[in-house]
Design the sequence.
């Protein structure tokens, strides 16, 4: 499942090697799509490693962020909040995906390893919001 605002759109899971573009889907949040399927949200699992073509730019920020990031979900305890986020090296600064400037391109480098225990499985589970 993608961020709560994207849950009613056509979607598919991300795969290693996918070329993705940050898109404003017009439903209150940004997400990823494939350039060949611009109306399909590509849902990324927490822990997925991404490589952007350029340093990542955010709305409202006067700096750029690393070209690499790990996809995370934050605000998991909040019902009507954005959850999809990117964690950037070297210090683990985390920013909501909805603030990434539209049109930036990324490649899926690696999906998270299969969970080895219940805690890891919970961490990798996409937050599903029914509202």
Sequence:
């Amino acid at each position: 499942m993608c961020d709560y605002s994207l849950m009613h759109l056509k979607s598919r899971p991300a795969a290693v090697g996918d070329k993705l573009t940050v898109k404003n889907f017009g439903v209150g949040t940004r997400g990823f799509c494939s350039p060949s399927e611009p109306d399909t949200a590509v849902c990324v699992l927490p822990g997925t490693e991404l490589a952007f073509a350029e340093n990542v730019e955010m709305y409202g920020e006067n700096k750029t962020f690393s070209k690499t990031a790990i996809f995370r979900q934050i605000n998991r305890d909040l019902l009507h909040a954005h959850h999809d986020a990117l964690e950037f090296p070297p210090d683990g600064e985390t920013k909501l995906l909805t603030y990434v400037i539209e049109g930036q391109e990324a490649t899926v480098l690696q999906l998270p390893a299969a969970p080895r225990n219940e805690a890891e499985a919970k961490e990798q589970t996409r937050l599903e919001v029914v509202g």
Notes: The chain has a mean pLDDT of 86.
